Amino acid sequence: MKLQLAKISSEPLDTAAVDAAVAGPEHGAVVVFTGVVRNHDSGQSVLALEYQAHPDAETFLEICCAAVASESGLPVAAVHRVGDLVVGDIALVAAVASAHRAEAFTICATLVERIKSEVPIWKRQRFATGTSEWVGL
Predict the structure, then answer these.
(1) pLDDT of residue 136
(2) Closest CA to 18 of 97, 88, 74
(3) Per residue in 65-95, pLDDT tens?
(4) How many Cβ atoms sit within 10 Å of the Cβ of residue 55?
(5) 3-class DSSP state for residue 12?
(6) Using CB atoms within 10 A as the burial measure, which of 12, 60, 67, 73 is most buried?
(7) Whole-angstrom Cα distance, residue 32 to residue 25?
(8) Which residues make beta-bridge pairs with 95?
């Protein structure tokens, strides 16, 4: 299966574009995951996040998405945002299409977990206390 879309972006993410990258008349299910900046983590109030990526992060994202597409035989797409984000902003959009929903849900979950573990992107959480913490270094 050909990789549909894999991109790192400093601009707000377009969920419809990621959905459209995998959708087709042969697919009865398109699962789109949106990772949204939440207002808490580990019992602390989060005000904002800063995402930074390795210069080759987009290549790693392409490799990750291509591997999932090849292993599953399904179209996949993912876009990850970098830069400063606030609560409610979308940090990641990942999508998978298949003939039936169960497979699309399973493969989308796999895709997101592999992105989190294989793509060199780090986030700095800024807490209401004025402190911050890097995650994923």
Answers:
(1) 77
(2) 97
(3) 999 999 999 999 999 999 999 999 999 999 9
(4) 8
(5) coil
(6) 60
(7) 17
(8) 32, 77
For 68: left if phi > 0, alpha if psi spans -120 to 50, otherwise beta; the answer is: alpha
Backbone angles phi, psi at 60, to 5 degrees: -60, -40
Tokens 């904002």 — which residue? 48
3-state secondary structure of 117: helix
In this structure, the number of other CB atoms found within 10 A of the CB of residue 128 comes to 11
Q: Which two tokens stand for residue 97?
A: 């299409």
Looking at residue 75, what is its pLDDT? 97
Distance CA 68, CA 114 (A): 9
Backbone Cα Rg of the chain: 15
pLDDT tens for 14-61 read 999 999 999 999 999 999 999 999 999 989 999 999 999 999 999 999
Burial 99-127 (b: 16+ CB within 10 A, else e): eeeebbeebbebbbebbeeebebebbbbb
